[in-house]
Prior knowledge:
Blueprint: E1 2-9, H1 17-27, E2 38-46, E3 51-58, H2 72-77, E4 83-88, H3 98-101
Antiparallel strand pairs: 1-3, 1-4, 2-3
Amino acid sequence: MRAVVVWWNLDGSGQTLSALRDSLEAEGAASWERVEGLCLKLWVADPVGNRWGAVMVWEREVPPVGSLPANRAAELIGSPPTVRVEFEVEAAVAGPAWSALVPQAEG
């Protein structure tokens, strides 16, 4: 598995966490639901550091950025992420609270 962490420092961008959150709520995350190889995508906010970002976990190699759904945050902020780092996932565990958050498939 691979993990990718991206974030934008919003200082001087003219964008706010509140506006990005509103956009995510209004437009949803549906375009990411069927991306081949994507295990999980989390959108994250850091009010203290004035940063917005995402954490993505991929089954295997990370697809080229151009083959993924439009990066709405980059469009709204007007620039690519301030930081983009990629890691090899060595191990993962889902705690007991995870099952309450993620609907389980029937069958």
